[in-house]
C-alpha cells in the first residue's frame, strides 16, 4: 500500500469509497464545492491510501483562514476520514493524518481543528495528538417561550448574494473580539452560503437595517409537522431589541417553527442576552478539538478564546 496526494480525477474513487464506507452518497457537486472551489486555497489537501488501483483510505481537510490575535493565519478544518471496510485495523487513518499534517506544516498552516464525533474522538486524541478545547452544546429557544416577545410587525428583506450586503453588516459578522475566529470575508460568505449546492441557506436583513441573520430551515426531529431554524450566523450588536427583531423577522416569514437552534460560547458577550431571550443549552453536545502544527499557542487551547457558531462546522 502507498500514500499519495489527491490527483485530478481521483474524486470518482473518493465518492465510491464514501458510499462504501458510510452507506450513503456524496454528490460530485458537493465535493467540488467543499474542496475544489474552496476560496481560502487553490491547493487541495487530501491524502489517499492505495492498494494497487484500489482506494482503501482517505483523509481530507478544508483550508480556513482565521484571525488569530488580529493576524490572518492559515488553518485547516478536519473533514472526511474513511477506510475501506476490508482494511480496518491497519492504522491507515493515522498514517494518512500524519502525512497530511506534515504537508500542512510545510505550507505554514498554524493548526488543524474540528469536531470529532463519538466514533473518532478517541482515535484523534490517542493516535494523532489532538487536544480537547470544549464540549460544545446546542442552544435552543422553543417558540412557545418566545411568543411573548415576538414582534408581529417585524419584516426583513432576503439577500441572495453577498453583493447585496452592506460592508458595515459584514463588519458586524466579524466584530467578535475573540482571540481566534474565522475571517468572514465577502468571498467566504458567498461560498459558504450562496454557492453551497446541497443546503438552502437564507439571509435576512430587517427593514431597519439593524443586524443580520443567516439560517436554514430543517425538519424537527421531535415533531414531523414542525420546522426548526438552525441559525448559522447572526449579528445583533449585543442588543436585545435587535435580537428580538431578527428572530421575529424569521418567525414571521417561515411556517410552523418549533424552535431556534444555535451555537455560542459560554464566554461570549452575547450569551447573557441569548439566555434572557429564552435560549437554553441542550443536546446534542459536540467535541471541539485541535492539533497545533507550529509553535504552541496556549490561548488557542482555551475555549474562552474562541468565537463559535454553527457555521464553523461542516455538518450544518
Characterise the protein shown here:
The chain is of the alpha+beta class. It has two domains: 2-114, 3-Layer(aba) Sandwich (Aminopeptidase), CATH 3.40.630; 137-286, Aminopeptidase (3-Layer(aba) Sandwich). It is built from nine helices and 13 strands. The protein has helices at residues 11-22, 28-36, 92-106, 121-128, 143-146, 167-173, 186-194, 240-253, 271-277; strands at residues 2-5, 45-51, 54-68, 71-83, 109-114, 131-142, 156-159, 180-182, 201-206, 212-219, 227-235, 257-262, 280-292. Strands 1, 2, 3, 4, 5, 6, 7, 8, 9, 10, 11, 12 and 13 form a 13-stranded mixed beta sheet that branches. The radius of gyration is 20 Å and the shape is globular. The two termini are 35 Å apart. The model has no long low-confidence stretch (mean pLDDT 94).
Q: Please give the radius of gyration in angstroms.
A: 20 Å
The total count of strands amounts to 13
CATH topology of the largest domain: Aminopeptidase
pLDDT average, as an integer? 94
The fourth-level CATH homologous superfamily of the largest domain is Gcn5-related N-acetyltransferase (GNAT)
User: How can the largest sheet be summarized?
Assistant: 13 strands, mixed
Please tally the helical runs, counting DSSP H or I stretches of 4 or more residues: 9
Structural class computed from helices and strand pairing? alpha+beta
End-to-end Cα distance: 35 Å
Helix fraction, binned, reads 25-40%
Portion of residues in beta strands equals 25-35%
